[in-house]
Specification:
Elements: H1 2-27, E1 36-43, E2 46-52, E3 57-58, E4 60-70, E5 80-88, E6 93-94, E7 102-103, E8 111-117, E9 126-135, E10 138-146, E11 148-149, E12 156-160, E13 166-173, E14 180-193, E15 196-199, E16 204-210, E17 223-227, E18 233-239, E19 244-252, E20 258-260, E21 274-278
Bound molecules: copper (II) ion.
Length: 279
């Protein structure tokens, strides 16, 4: 009889717990739906969960999301946050282009920004992400080594222009290329020094997509990338069929002077500056 009593009270507790869990799930729509966890960065009393769409951090442009929670797993609302990615190389350290951080609209807990990793990590050299947060007026720092993997197709490139300046150019769109006309967007930064990258305004990025496997043919109706309203450079790229495309690039400054890249001709099948797409 006693055992039965114990058993029923345990059952009652279990039912209560499971009901509670359901309540929590109903009250909190999952804001990270469609995102995959990259890694958790811990430093008492907080944990930051980093997310991307793919669950990876790759060489090139990355849209990165994160949530801050306390050790009990409660999400922290309306925290202020800033970050700085740094690569520790054998002979030097350097930063990369990145955005400021903002809350995803309609969310109090999901932060968002982008980072352009101009190179991948390797066995000896690695990226570190340091995130500063302010929770209830107190500052905290959480940092960790992050794994930045090489991209299978070239989506970002660094170059020195004929003006002697160093640049980072990264393709943002298309992430899902399709046959026909695609929007193409890119970010262009100049390297002020190893730790500071600033967006470049008023340049033109000329594109010439080619299929090297099919006599290097081109496609019609391409539009060069220019800045519309934002810091993003926007244009149109046409893929007249599926397969591997090399998007040859030439970068011109605001005075229409060529800084980097060569035209594709019968004698020159590729520019030294390009992005790659395969679908
Ligand atoms: Cu590096």
């Amino acid at each position: 009889m006693k055992i039965l009593k114990y058993f029923s009270s345990i059952m009652l507790i279990l039912i209560t717990i499971s009901c509670k869990k359901d309540d929590i799930n109903i009250n909190l729509p999952n804001e990270t739906d469609g995102l995959k966890l990259v890694q958790s960065i811990k430093n008492d009393p907080f944990i930051i969960d980093l997310y991307t769409v793919s669950g990876k951090l790759e060489q090139g442009y990355n849209e990165v999301f994160f949530q801050i929670k306390d050790v009990e797993g409660h999400l922290i609302e309306n925290a202020q946050a800033s970050w700085s990615p740094i690569m520790h190389m054998m002979d030097k350290s350097h930063a990369c282009p990145y955005s400021s951080i903002s809350l995803v609209s309609d969310s109090k807990t999901l932060h968002k920004g982008f980072i352009v990793f101009q190179m991948a990590g390797n066995d000896m050299e690695y990226w570190e992400l340091s995130i500063n947060i302010i929770v209830q007026e107190s500052p905290y720092n959480l940092s960790a080594k992050i794994n930045v993997i090489p991209a299978s197709k070239k989506r970002a490139t660094t170059f020195t222009g004929s003006d002697g300046k160093k640049y980072v150019l990264a393709m943002v769109q298309p992430t899902q290329p399709k046959e026909g006309l695609n929007s193409i967007t890119a970010l262009l930064y100049t390297m002020e020094n190893m730790m500071s990258f600033i967006p470049v305004n008023g340049y033109t990025i000329k594109i010439d997509p080619r299929m090297p496997s099919m006599e290097n043919h081109s496609s019609p109706n391409n539009e060069n990338l220019t800045q519309k309203s934002t810091s993003f450079y926007e244009g149109k790229v046409a893929f007249s069929m599926t397969g591997y495309w090399k998007i040859n690039l030439q970068v011109f400054n605001e005075a229409a002077e060529l800084l980097k890249g060569e035209p594709v001709t019968n004698e020159n099948e590729s520019s030294s500056l390009f992005f790659e797409v395969e679908f």
